Every structure is written in C-alpha cells, then in structure tokens.
C-alpha cells in the first residue's frame, strides 16, 4: 500500500506543470542624442533559470503626445524581426546577444520625430511573468548639460578650493617656521659674537710674585702744621 502511494505521488509530481517565476527587465531611464546620430537602447533581464532557447525580446514605441504604441522589433526563435513599414523603417538594428540576456537595439539617423518612449519586454520560458521596462528618448540639436554634470562640476570646484586652502595653510606655516628659525639662529650668533668680544677685553689679574709698585702720597697739611708747632715749642727760649 505504501509503495503504491509513493508511486502515485511521483506520477502526480511529474505531470504537474512547472510553475513560472518572475522575470525582471532592465532598461535605461532617459537617453539624450543629437539629430542625425545613432543611439543604442539597452535591454536586459534577470531570471533564476538558465537562458532558454525560446527567449524572446519585444520593443514598442509610443511617440510623445500619443497614447498608442507601435511594435518596431521582435526577437523569437533565434531570429530578429524588424518593422519595415513604420517610422523606423530601415533604421532599427538588433545589436544584442540573447545568450547573455541582452536584447539591445540600435536606432540610426535620429530625427526630432523620434522623441518618445521605447518599451522592452522579455520572456525566458518558463519565466514569462514580468513587467516591461521603458526608456525615454530625447533628440536635440545640441545635447543639453545634464544636472549630474553641473553637480559634478560644482563638487569638483569645491574640492579644488579646499585643496588650495589646505596647501596655502601649510605653506604659510612653513614660511613662518622658517622665519622663526632664521631669527633664532641670527640671535644666537649675535650673542656668541658679543661673548667673544667680552673675552677679548678681559685682562688677567696680576701675579703675587710680581714686584709691587709703591705709591707716595703727599703729606697731609694739618699734620705738617702740628709738627711745626711742636718744634717751635721745644726749641723756643
């Protein structure tokens, strides 16, 4: 009985169709191009399964101000199919690699009328459930400066100014330290010169063995008067 139930479960699991999983599709957000130039519109997808031989890519186009979309490209069964009757006749080329999950196309000789939204859809059976991804194309005579470029220029200018301030700060510190060192060296040299001059003016003391000079002082006038008065008193009659 248990063997029968096990065999029955295996058979039931084998005949249950494999469930599909979600597929995630990626394109750019917005592209800018010049009139008369070519542009590549990228499309890729993520799937948990290996890339199937039945992988498909589809591109549709909706002009600005319109609600209707038209099909311009389809890839299936290993072959690309391009719309040869619409506005992109002979101007769409498949440049992707389905084996690497790349469904990119190249649009040639752009015109102002090509402004619009391009939508890519991909299927990787059994993964067929996914939301298409869209990219907007804007065609100009001159490509405008994007906000990212302006932001990068501002950030670069600020960083350059900060680097310049730091360099000036350390340069001033170096010059001040060099000036202080020069002053200290000159002051030390001046003191050393004054000390040497004082040593040259100093005279050594006289030796005790040298003969001493006697200095005769004149007699005191009061003492002479006393002696004269005594001599007169002694020899007077």
TrEMBL record:
Keywords: Disulfide bond, Glycoprotein, Immunoglobulin domain, Membrane, Signal, Transmembrane, Transmembrane helix. Residues 1-22 form the signal peptide. One of its GO terms (cellular component) is plasma membrane. It is found in: Membrane. Residues 17-136 form the Ig-like domain. InterPro entries: Ig-like_dom, Ig_sub, Ig_V-set, Myelin_P0-rel. GO terms for biological process: myelination. The keyword Coiled coil does not apply. It is a single-pass type I membrane protein. The keyword Transmembrane applies. The chain crosses the membrane at residues 145-171. Pfam families: V-set. Belongs to the myelin P0 protein family. This is Myelin protein P0 isoform X2. It comes from Solea senegalensis.
